[in-house]
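Weekly modeling sync, notes
Attendees: S.R. (lead), two postdocs, one rotation student

Agenda item 3: backlog of single-chain predictions. S.R. asked that every request posted to the team notebook include the full sequence so nobody has to chase files. The rotation student volunteered to paste the first one in as an example of the format we agreed on. Action items at the bottom.

Example entry:
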Amino acid sequence: MITAEDRLWAKVERGGPSECWPWTGTLTKGYGHIKVSGKLIYTHRLALSLATGVPLSDPRKALHRCDNPPCCNPTHLRWGTQAQNIQDAIERQRAKMPPRRQRRTHCTRGHEMPQRRYRMTCPTCRTEQAA
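Predicted structure, as returned to the notebook:
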């Protein structure tokens, strides 16, 4: 009987230990997936699960160190949280800080904003409008 592990590695182009091992099967939004027990699983998650012995039911995410979504090389992967995944994306400039979390430094008219938290309106504009 062909196992999920056999099906996974049959469609992974394995290279050297430091190289990316891309999934050569179907990709969705850049990520490989495979059906395991009737459920679609990301191929990088399955590869990390097989390498570490952590069950697929574990709630943690399989994070890429290489920023290459189809990569299934277990040495390029690590377990982490969604918050860590988002922070990695921001640090590696693959994503921007959500606007609600960015601190505004200047208003739309170019006035410098005070560095107080939650200041939504520009005090200089407010003063000019009142005059």
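Discussion: group reviewed the output briefly. The chain has two domains: 4-96, 99-131.
Action items: rotation student to repeat for the remaining queue; S.R. to check formatting next week.
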